[in-house]
Amino acid sequence: MPAEQENRPNHAHVFYKKALELLQESGIRFMLGGGFGMLHYTGIYRDTKDLDVFCEAEECPRILELFDKHGYRTELTDIRWLAKIFDGDLFIDIIFNTPNNICKVDESWFQHAVSAEVMGVEVLMISAEEIIWCKTYVQNRDRYDGADVNHLILKQGKNLDWKRLLSRLDQHWHLLLAAILLFQFVYPADHGEIVPRWLFDELLERARRQYEFPVVRPSCLGPLLDQRQYDMDVKEWNYKVSTI
After folding, report:
1. CB-CB neighbours of 145 under 10 Å
2. What is the three-class DSSP state of 241?
3. Exposure of 127 by Cβ count < 10 A (0-12 exposed, 13-18 middle, 19+ buried)?
């Protein structure tokens, strides 16, 4: 973040700094991601009106209670994965899963989180592997995070634990292969030094073997990426929603 923006005493800065201090003082375990995660790992600054706080599901009610006691408006926005804390037109997202119920926050996230300083407060930042894992599924009409994944791979690829990332996406490895192919397209001169050859070869071999496997039809994994755009597949074309 540019120094003049980092030091500017605006409403968002005051709200977010106070929120982080409250969370730290409470002893509730949490991590940051979102725009601040992208800033930490890529250097890309976004003027955002929200703060993404990640926690385990059982901690979410404690966080809402904490901020409710301090006069903030709170809501459980989506019981599957999201709650919010409001201060005027600003808000904090409390995230404990993803809408497709795949990227559930658990102890392993904390084990791989890294220390960072945000607005003068020491916090834990979710790992680059977790950010890529979550963003790989964001491929809907209103939002597509492919560019974020590309920037994360570009700036952190040489430091990524690719085996752990593969284990995260192993069930849906096609998405990792697609991300790598897109990265090759966007950065044709960089991919060979960043993406391990063993991983690319492994994923290509899996893709080749797909032609040899019997396929259960009709099935569709599209709703894992966007439930609205693939709604007709399920309701009108009689595809079965599949998770693998």
Report:
1. 19
2. strand
3. buried
CA 21 to chain centre: 23
- One-letter amino acid for residue 81 of the chain: W
pLDDT tens digits for 56-90? 999 999 999 999 999 999 999 999 999 999 999 89
Q: Do 189 and 196 form a contact (C-beta atoms < 8 A)? A: no
What pLDDT, in 10s, does the model give residues 81-136? 999 999 998 999 999 999 999 999 999 999 999 999 999 999 999 999 999 999 99
* Cβ 32 vs Cβ 16: under 8 Å: no
C-alpha to C-alpha distance for 92 and 56, rounded to whole angstroms: 16
Cα dihedral sign, 133-134-135-141: positive
pTM of the model: 0.91
* b/e code 19-46 from CB counts within 10 Å (16+ = b): bbebbeeeebbbbbbbbbbbbbbbeeee
Which structural domains are found in the chain, ordered by start? 1-126 (3.30.460.40), 127-212 (no CATH), 214-244 (no CATH)
Strand partners, 73: 86
CA 7 to chain centre: 27
pLDDT of residue 108: 98
Query: Pairing state of beta strands 240-241 and 219-220?
Result: parallel
- pLDDT, mean of residues 148-155: 98
